[in-house]
Amino acid sequence: MLTIFLLENARFTLQWLSRKPVVRNRAGNIRVLPIMPKDLYKTIFDNNLDAILVIKPDGRILAANPAACLLFGLPEEELQQIKLAELVSPGGMLSGNAPGSLVWNELRRTKAIFVKKDGCPFRALVSSGVQESPDQELKIVLFIRDVTDSLDFPQELRAGEDLLHQLASVLRVAVWIRDAQTRQVLYVNPAFEEIFGLPRQAFYDEPETVINAMPPEDRKLITPGDTGISIEHRIIRPDGSVRWVWGRNFPVRNESGEIIRTASIMEDITDRKLTDEKLSFVYGEMQRQMDEIKGLHSTLQEQAIRDPLTGLYNRRYLDEALDSEINHARRDGSVISLIMIDIDNFKETNDIYGHHGGDEVLRRLAQFLKDHTRHSDVACRFAGDEFVILLPDTPAETACQRADNLRAIFESDKTIYSDMKIHSTISIGVAQYPVHGATSRELLTAVDNAMYDAKAMGKNCVVVEGSRCNP
User: Fold this and answer.
1) Distance from C-alpha of 325 to C-alpha of 378, rounded to nearest angstrom
2) Same domain, 323 and 201
3) What angle do CA 294, 296, 301 make, to 5 degrees?
4) Could you state, in chain order, the average pLDDT of each consecutive group of 10 residues for the chain (471 residues)?
5) Is residue 164 part of a domain?
6) Model pTM?
7) Is residue 311 included in any domain, yes or no?
8) Phi, psi (deg, nearest 5) at residue 82
9) How far apart (Å, rounded) are the C-alpha atoms in residues 342 and 463?
10) Could you tell me if 80 and 192 lie in one domain?
11) Is residue 155 part of a domain?
């Protein structure tokens, strides 16, 4: 095994390459030194105060001395299972002198930022060299010295990184950093434990801890490799409690623009979610009550303008509708007709069949009018057994024809009540605006007089202007 070590205040770097340890003087010449005894080599390797890592060109760690294990907080067995890149902080290899990117034909010295097992970053000076073993396999030796507190790094940079680490440690938002290739967790702050109910070490040991904590149906929201996308989902803690969280991933790129790390943040939004659900429930209840109020209001409006027995519009609605249609006709120069209907001999019907029988005749006539009027017509129960139909844009001649058709059809039909057939006829009066009245009151008076004329002429007929209609 190769060892490279630096002697404090020495003017040269001592390098042992395989069986040919050499030293490079200040002039750059290499001189072969006598081979160091193995026990002295082991003593230097094991007792050196600086960390020593032996790695392959691909970055896999082959050996680590006790100082390296202490510095990184990892036993040698664990260090041998990872690559050097997993120990480097995102963007922490300075000057571009990363193993594998150099021509390893001489000793190198650079600065780097590493991350310990607990996630704490530190700055280091790195000396490196290469050895070719008898089987021509290359090994790289790194000699790492923690210089976090030295002046080799700008004071502002140290202060900024320390502040960032302190902030991450006290935030109630979970923060973690992964290696983009291996997905190995390189750092996770203490808030992870509060949110997930798990020790941070569990996340270091199992990189899929976050995914595993999600219900199966929520895992569909996660697409591996996606960055910059924020989502809300649930997690299930070891005690079975369910928490809502919001998370987002961010890419960390090197100087070449390649994504080498992913940084993630996650916030517990359970309280906010519960509040939103409560507000949503309250809003839903308010909306339901508002709908009920609107429904009641609409019902009351209908009740205010509808006759409860027949379901037709009442006298109040007719007055409003007639005034509106007269104003419209006055502006447009159009005409309006009114039809007033009265059931013949209705008092005798009530005397013979009772009021319930009479009510059935009224309901039958009301349904008859609904079935034989246009959508634009307004059919109303005016009073007692009197009914009025308002016909917009209809001259008296047309109204007379329609009225006589209604009379004839109603006469041919019968009202069924308690297995009895009640035969009824109707007398009808017709009046037209503005010929028979220029106001609603005048028009109603005219149509009422025409209806009484129809009764005086023998009933079961249609009268306009004191004369029978001749359709």
Assistant:
1) 11
2) no
3) 95
4) 31 33 41 48 79 86 91 91 83 46 48 82 81 67 81 48 55 84 86 91 91 90 70 92 91 82 89 86 88 86 88 93 94 95 93 92 94 93 94 95 94 86 94 94 95 94 87 57
5) no
6) 0.45
7) yes
8) -125, 175
9) 12
10) no
11) no
